[in-house]
């Protein structure tokens, strides 16, 4: 449910957190078709169904499983897309730095060549005779000694100029090679990003088509079925006694991150979004910790890979819970056995049970 004003959003969040922590259902029991049983159809006695073509002979549970699987695969591909996008941005910056260095080196090379040309013209005006030979033909001892000093300085300057020309040319060659390598990497990142995006849109499109074929009352039952499954998993997690081990004390930064996440409750999930009005799962956690003054990676997989890990029993509010074996989903622990996350397309940022999905592990952005 979307928020109806700030106060209402906070009260709904608190009530939901309590329900999630207890692992109880806030809704009356509803009977669903068992897997393999015919599902309801718009005209098949469900009543009030509008829009969509119904599930036909497919059970609502089968639809839930397929939709959930498609969104999970899309979420995993989204991490690959976001990572490729980040790499592309870094490579574009690297290419820009190389281009600036090339311009600087080219300017230096032009100046050095100009000086070398001036020295060559000066020698030509001297009849092409080396300065050392002209010295020995000079009959004045004083001029000879002064000439020796100047000749040595000129020779040193010539060698220095030649050395700088050689070094600058090496630098230009190196920049050219680096630019070529970065362009190749950039092309690979673009290709990966394009492939990931294509896969994401394919999965999202199929999941959305499946949901759109459901009647209105079936879509609501699908939502409740998802919530019942999550509550069942949470209740099983709480049965382990984990809640007795968890603490509710957050650090100052962790508290600010949690506060930011709570302020986003009710906002829509949108693929690839990082706020301020819509989020995907890792976009929400990244922005929450940015608001707390801590920069963290963009994707849930990178958050899992790069942030310090802590035991589940030691997690505290503000910690990030990474879900599924491929680290494709993330939520923020907020205390009392609950977490806040952006679930999937068609859903809003919400409070859920911390154990409502398979936990891979916990990471702590402000580990000390």
Q: Could you outline the blueprint of secondary structure elements for this entry?
A:
Layout: H1 6-22, H2 60-125, H3 131-136, H4 141-212, H5 216-238, H6 252-263, E1 268-269, E2 278-279, H7 281-291, H8 300-306, E3 309-310, E4 320-323, E5 329-335, E6 338-341, E7 350-353, E8 359-363
Parallel strand pairs: 1-2
Antiparallel strand pairs: 3-8, 4-5, 4-8, 5-6, 6-7
Helix pairs in contact: 2-4, 2-5, 6-7
Tell the overall outline.
Answer: elongated
Percent of residues in helices? 55-70%
The CATH superfamily of the largest domain is identified as endopeptidase domain like (from Nostoc punctiforme)
- By DSSP (H or I, 4+ residues per run), the number of helices equals 8
* DSSP strand tally: 8
Description:
This protein is α+β, with helices and mostly antiparallel strands. It has two domains: 8-55 and 232-363, endopeptidase fold (from Nostoc punctiforme), CATH 3.90.1720.10; 82-203. It has eight helices and eight strands, in the order ααααααββααββββββ. The protein has a six-stranded antiparallel sheet with strand order 3-8-4-5-6-7. A hairpin with an 8-residue loop joins strand 6 (338-341) and strand 7 (350-353).
């Amino acid at each position: 449910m979307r928020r109806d004003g700030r106060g209402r959003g906070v009260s709904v969040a608190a009530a939901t957190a309590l329900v999630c922590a207890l692992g109880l259902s806030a809704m009356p029991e509803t009977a669903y078709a068992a897997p393999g049983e015919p599902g309801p159809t718009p005209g098949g006695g469900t009543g009030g169904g509008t829009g969509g073509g119904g599930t036909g002979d497919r059970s609502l549970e089968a639809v839930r499983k397929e939709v959930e699987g498609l969104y999970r695969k899309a979420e995993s591909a989204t991490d690959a897309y976001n990572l490729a996008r980040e790499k592309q941005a870094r490579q574009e910056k690297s290419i820009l730095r190389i281009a600036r260095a090339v311009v600087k080196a080219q300017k230096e090379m032009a100046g050095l060549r100009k000086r070398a040309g001036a020295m060559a013209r000066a020698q030509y005006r001297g009849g092409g005779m080396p300065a050392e030979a002209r010295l020995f033909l000079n009959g004045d001892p004083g001029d000879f000694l002064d000439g020796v000093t100047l000749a040595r300085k000129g020779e040193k300057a010539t060698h220095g100029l030649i050395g700088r020309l050689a070094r600058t040319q090496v630098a230009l060659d190196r920049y050219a090679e680096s630019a070529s390598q970065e362009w190749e990497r950039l092309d690979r990142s673009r290709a990966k990003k394009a492939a990931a995006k294509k896969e994401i849109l394919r999965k999202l499109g199929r999941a959305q088509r499946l949901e759109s074929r459901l009647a209105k009352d079936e879509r609501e039952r699908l939502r409740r079925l998802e919530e019942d499954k999550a509550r069942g998993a949470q209740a099983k997690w709480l049965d382990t006694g984990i809640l007795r081990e968890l603490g509710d004390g957050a650090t100052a930064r962790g508290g600010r991150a949690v506060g930011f996440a709570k302020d986003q409750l009710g906002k829509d999930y949108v693929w690839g979004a990082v706020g301020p009005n819509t989020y995907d799962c890792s976009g929400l956690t990244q922005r929450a910790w940015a608001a707390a003054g801590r920069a963290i990676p963009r994707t849930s997989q990178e958050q899992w890979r790069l942030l310090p890990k802590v035991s589940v029993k030691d997690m505290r509010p503000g910690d990030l819970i990474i879900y599924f074996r491929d680290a494709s989903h993330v939520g923020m622990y907020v205390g009392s056995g609950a977490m806040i996350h952006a679930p999937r397309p068609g859903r809003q940022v919400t409070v859920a049970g911390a154990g409502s999905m398979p936990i891979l592990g916990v990471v702590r952005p402000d580990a000390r």
